[in-house]
Amino acid sequence: MTAMRFLDACRRKKTDATPVWFMRQAGRYMPEYRALRKKYSILELCEHPEAAAEVTLQPVRAFEVDAAILFADILLPVRPMGMSLTFVKGEGPCLSKPIRTAQDVARLRAFNPKEGLGYVLEAVRLVRAELEGKTPLIGFAGAPFTLASYMIEGGPSKDYRNTKAMMHGNPKAWRALMQKITQVTGAYLSAQAEAGAQALQLFDSWAGQLSKSDYDAFVLPYSRKVLKAASKTGVPVIHFATGTSHFLESFRDAGADVIGVDWRLGLDEAWKRIGYGRAVQGNLDPIHLQLPRPQLKKAVREVLKRAGGRRGHIFNLGHGVLTHTPPDNVRAVTEWVHEWTAN
Ligand code: CP3
């Protein structure tokens, strides 16, 4: 690990090896994390800056990853906006009351991140102090669509029925909601950079649920605004979503420096469509981390082959680390990528 490898790759500069980090690199697959979770709920971990900093550092200590990602959750901003948030074991996040009408949207508060999410900003400062410039820290937020979908559905969804119903049936309420989330998210990301985050990632995990025309009309303008606000801070900005191959060009046009690619599309084809003027991040299938070593090795080689040794590849998964992943495989992949790409 060298301090600049990841940040240089974001800017498509030459690096001594391909940088590696893993989305959801802190979490239940790590014994150190499970030990802390015995004492704290997920929300308590987020709310206690020392605990959040500790979890952020766990994968940095355990593996030679080239970036740390702040331990927090994309759903935290819904609380200062006025919704309640709980995590129900086995069911995932639960938000109430779901936003369904223009009146519901009007009640949501556009909060100041220093007041509403000061504990996240404090965790950023603590992590930066502990990392001493050795590993860069990534801050993040949920993108307007993915956040809106949780706020409208009240939790995870298979068909995004209520979200799409508002988008098409009450476009005025939809636009008011997206505008409010856009404002809050832009300010939140800027505050994270100000507190010390050295790169910012916008997670639009479920945007791939939309058609290209719906993405272009109802989502793209808002993501573009958030990315613009994030870019103004001067740090590199990463934009991630899954299932974007049908609107990859629109997704690129939202304006991030680094485009996250999931495993469904070959990285060579994705990068060609995105254009070599942008950096790309991805795209090992997370389930491959659970394969026997020979198959895992082959899958990692395949991703690197498709990246073609170009400047601006950040090795990552196509989505987050899954719960049953052996931590040793995460370490092995990190070492292989560094070894095989060293120059
Ligand atoms: O990547 C990291 O290591 C940083 C931490 C991080 C978390 N959530 C911690 C967390 C990040 C970047 C997120 C982002 C996030 N949260 C996303 C976008 C990324 C993605 O995976 O698509 C989404 C959709 C969420 C919402 C969310 N939070 C879900 C669906 C869940 C799972 C609920 C469950 O019961 O499994 C969470 C909880 C959560 N956030 C966990 C972690 C480590 C699991 C926590 C636990 O139970 O200990």
Explain the overall architecture.
By secondary structure, the chain is α/β, with parallel strands linked by helices. The chain has one domain: TIM Barrel, CATH 3.20.20. The chain contains 17 helices and 9 strands. A 7-stranded parallel β-sheet has the order 1-4-5-6-7-8-9. It has a two-stranded antiparallel ribbon with strand order 2-3. Helix 15 (267-274) packs parallel to helix 16 (293-307). The longest helix is centred in the middle third of the chain and has 25 residues, at 171-195. 46% of the residues are buried. The chain binds coproporphyrinogen III. Coproporphyrinogen III (CP3) binds next to strand 3.
Summarize the structure in short.
The chain is α/β, with parallel strands linked by helices and about 350 residues long. The protein contains 17 helices and nine strands.
What brief labels describe this structure?
343 residues, alpha/beta, TIM Barrel, seven-stranded parallel beta sheet, two-stranded antiparallel ribbon, binds coproporphyrinogen III
How do the helices and strands line up, and which of them pair or pack?
Elements: H1 5-10, H2 31-37, H3 42-47, H4 49-62, E1 68-69, H5 78-81, E2 84-88, E3 92-96, H6 102-107, H7 113-116, H8 118-131, E4 137-142, H9 144-153, H10 161-169, H11 171-195, E5 199-204, H12 212-218, H13 220-231, E6 237-241, H14 248-253, E7 258-260, H15 267-274, E8 279-284, H16 293-307, E9 313-317, H17 327-341
Parallel strand pairs: 1-4, 4-5, 5-6, 6-7, 7-8, 8-9
Antiparallel strand pairs: 2-3
The structure holds coproporphyrinogen III (CP3).
